[in-house]
């Protein structure tokens, strides 16, 4: 990851799209890009979800390009507005977008030249630690952005942080998420998008 951070900080592409499955380290990397304005798509999605009267996590279907056109158009418009508001700075967009057509729609026209960085989890132990940390933060703040929340049973939610039960659950979820990440990477590659793969 350090090599990628140094490369981006040296080359200074105007637009960087940073994606990965939940908990892979998008925010960590984006915050290390010197002078870049960061747009966290989860925040855009949550705000739009409230404006459209959606119940969380319904609005996160936007990442799969799977919501009605008014929502999709508003999502892309918010991103383009951020680009315009920060026209003097380089911008990194971080989010778990899983649809190639949506990536192309966002990065089109004036924004067509961009660097696509894909964080690819390969270290299970590190990924489990990141997911556990994020799960704890989201549980405390009552946020549910991690994709694993759909798998969380009441027993898991009540399990002690760091318990054997919690660790085993997180290991299963890490493997599940890593499999999903590999499929998504292959899908983006097959769709013809040029990516910088960063193993994490």
Automatic annotation (TrEMBL):
InterPro entries, alphabetized = P-loop_NTPase
**Origin: domain of life:** Eukaryota
> What Gene3D superfamilies does this protein map onto?
P-loop containing nucleotide triphosphate hydrolases (3.40.50.300)
Q: What is this protein called?
A: Uncharacterized protein
For this protein's source organism, the top of the classification is:
Eukaryota, Sar, Stramenopiles, Oomycota, Peronosporomycetes
């Amino acid at each position: 990851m350090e090599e990628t951070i140094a490369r981006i900080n040296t080359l200074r592409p105007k637009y960087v799209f940073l994606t990965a499955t939940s908990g892979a380290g998008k925010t960590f990397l984006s915050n290390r890009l010197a002078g870049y304005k960061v747009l966290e798509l989860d925040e855009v999605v949550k705000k739009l979800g409230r404006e459209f009267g959606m119940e969380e996590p319904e609005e996160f279907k936007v990442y799969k390009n799977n919501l009605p056109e008014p929502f999709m158009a508003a999502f892309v418009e918010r991103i383009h507005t951020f680009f315009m508001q920060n026209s003097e700075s380089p911008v990194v967009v971080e989010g778990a977008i899983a649809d190639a057509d949506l990536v192309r729609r966002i990065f089109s026209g004036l924004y067509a030249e961009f660097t696509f960085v894909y964080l690819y989890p390969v270290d299970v132990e590190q990924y489990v630690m990141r997911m556990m940390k994020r799960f704890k933060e989201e549980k405390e703040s009552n946020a549910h952005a991690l994709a694993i929340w759909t798998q969380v049973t009441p027993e898991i939610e009540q399990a002690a942080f760091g318990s054997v039960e919690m660790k085993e659950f997180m290991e299963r979820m890490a493997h599940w998420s890593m499999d999903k990440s590999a499929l998504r990477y292959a899908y983006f590659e097959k769709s013809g998008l040029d990516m910088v793969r960063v193993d994490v």
